[in-house]
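Retro notes (design track)

What went well: tokenization of the new backbones is finally stable.
What didn't: we kept losing track of which sequence belonged to which structure.
Fix going forward: every design gets posted as structure first, then sequence, in one message. First example under the new rule, 184 residues:
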């Protein structure tokens, strides 16, 4: 797949922006899920710990969905800037981007608001019908976060793979007198 210098520049910039957004998104998920939530829930008594984490997760939902929008925008830019078409790696990367974005939007617009509403209504996790629903939603939300982590790690791998598959820019090589130039 031959790309012009301008299309290679667009691809490189788009990948850099997408990788930065992916790093923020993935890093946030890892920090919240592996560090913040366990520490808050183990050191702050209920309902204060749940109050705090509802606020943290709702704020992070905005960050994650913003990062998802940036990642998807870079895929659109990459597709628009590619005169040679998308390779299989490009399609895989775009598909993983869409799946991760869908998970972030589902979590941010469906799961987190419902969890926050149940918590605001005084529902305790695991107690009564509302508590059972809260527990179920929490489990789904945890799974959704784990799926995002896996997809985002795969997305990073696919970005690296697609960048390494780019053909190097053709450079004018010095020619010896009487030796014909290389043919493409």
């Amino acid at each position: 797949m031959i790309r012009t210098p301008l299309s290679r520049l667009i691809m490189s910039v788009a990948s850099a922006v997408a990788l930065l957004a992916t790093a923020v998104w993935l890093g946030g998920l890892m920090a919240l899920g592996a560090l913040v939530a366990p520490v808050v829930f183990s050191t702050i008594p209920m309902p204060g710990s749940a109050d705090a984490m509802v606020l943290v997760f709702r704020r992070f939902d905005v960050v994650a969905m913003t990062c998802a929008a940036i990642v998807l925008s870079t895929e659109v830019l990459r597709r628009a800037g590619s005169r040679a078409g998308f390779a299989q790696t490009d399609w895989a990367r775009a598909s993983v981007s869409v799946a991760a974005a869908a998970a972030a939007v589902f979590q941010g617009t469906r799961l987190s608001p419902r969890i926050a509403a149940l918590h605001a209504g005084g529902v305790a996790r695991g107690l009564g019908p509302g508590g059972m629903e809260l527990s179920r939603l929490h489990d789904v939300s945890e799974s959704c976060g784990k799926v995002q982590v896996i997809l985002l790690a795969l997305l990073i791998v696919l970005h690296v793979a697609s960048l390494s598959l780019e053909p190097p820019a053709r450079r004018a090589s010095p020619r010896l007198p009487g030796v014909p130039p290389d043919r493409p």
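Added context from the reviewer: The chain has four helices and no strands.
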